[in-house]
Amino acid sequence: MPPLINRRRALLFPLLAVLAVILYVRHQATAQYSFAVPSRLSFAHVPLEHETNLPVSVPVSEPSDSEEARHTAEQLLFPGVAQSLSSTSAPEPTVISSSLPPPPPKPTTLPPSVKYRPLSSGRWHQLASPPGSLPALHTLWGSHGHYCLPAFREDLQLLSDSEREELGRERLLRCTSWEWVPSLPGGAKMREWNVRNFIARLVNSERGMLLVGDSLTGQMADVLYSMLLLPIPGSEDNSYPAILPSAHYTTGTHVVIDHMNVTLHPFHPLYAELRAQFPHILEERFQEPIVQYMRHDLLLSYAELEPVFEQVGFTHAPFEYGPFASQFPWRVRLPNNPSRWDGEQDSVLVLNTGAHWSPARWGVPQAAYTEGYRAVVRHLLPELLGTPKLHLVYRGTASPHTNCYEHTAPVFPGLPVDPAHEYDWGWAHFPVLDQVWAEQLDEAAPEGKGSAGGRVDILDVREMSAQRPEDHVLGFDGKGDCLHWYGPTVPGTWAKMVWHIL
Ligand SMILES: *[C@@H]1O[C@H](CO)[C@@H](O)[C@H](O)[C@H]1NC(C)=O
């Protein structure tokens, strides 16, 4: 009975979190950690202007049908790999002993897997005033990229295009009438989204925000771009956006955006305002990107992967090395100027890889490619944690849903993937991959700081995404893609969560 187990888990969650810290602390034998929640971040409450003269949207990406539907529409390349699931399901929570050890002394820092747990646990709430129209939706999430597909129904194929379009629009408004309310200490709210403050924070760093990962990270970048089209509180001119996008597409059979920049609009008043606020920052910085999205499905290039895999004896069928995996050389965009200008803040790297790791792609069972995955993480970490002026945020892999078309509303608690149905694409195994990052980051940065001094955080998005089975892209047959997200609320909330922890 998975829902019951899940509910029990949800109830046990706070206890387990505490237990994890205790176990961790004992393991480290340093007794320096405690149970205190992270100190409250500053919540700047600047009211958003709800204007109807919205900034003009510049489309940077079209949803690609072939790609969006790939996890359900693609033929399995190697259907014979479905293996026994015995060794592959997520580890069960540790049994809680009835006599807990006394709490360790006063806390200063927490390991990455613990620090932002309250942000990742919570529940979707229906908005008091849900958007009743597309313009209303645009005042919440910006005006870019909110496309519509209808939900599944038996007679879907019989409907006219305009009927489907209307159903898609209705569904979009339904999906966007929810808001993630995390269980923050003291009932605190998530930091309010503020375009001006976001841009100011990032321009005051060498490289701004770097979003690196696969198409799901691309969805996050797409919504973030839309959120940057929202009016700037207190700005003298909100008739056009303060930022400009530019995108580069891959060539070949599978065309995707592999690099997108969001840069300050040189003629927008915000540009001059920030120039005046940061007179000591070189002019060139203002022309460089505020946000970059770089697509790299596996994080290491094929040439780099082979020796890394060889070290751990991981061999695989070369299926992943097909046209799907975009490999933008993202590490050349990490900060590399060792000196800081006065008050310079760290650049932020938001990283993920997960959805491209599956038995279908590698031609091996989950246990085998997990070793390859772990080797990739171990290979990357010394470089990332040793990069000066870098704040690393590892974003966990979101939870897809088995037969998502059966759902019309969020669920609580989140629905786990059914491993019997979703073996080939490795969906039920995503939590194990997240666990690899949690272990490696907790070990390498037990106090949430890398060797070069930058912050190291984990943003777990599993529960918040698992509660949204109704919010997937689907397909024109109504039953398609249950991995990618439809509408801005899920990937856009990841962007808000990152803003919260900055
Ligand atoms: C993004 O900005 C970087 C740094 O200025 C530049 O090298 C790159 O060509 C830009 N890419 C796109 C797609 O505009």
From TrEMBL:
Residues 100-110 have a biased composition (Pro residues). Residues 1-31 form the signal peptide. Keywords: Signal. GO terms for molecular function: O-acetyltransferase activity. InterPro entries: TBL (IPR029962). Residues 85-114 are annotated as: Disordered. This is Alpha/beta-hydrolase. It comes from Dacryopinax primogenitus (strain DJM 731). The lineage of its organism: Eukaryota, Fungi, Dikarya, Basidiomycota, Agaricomycotina.
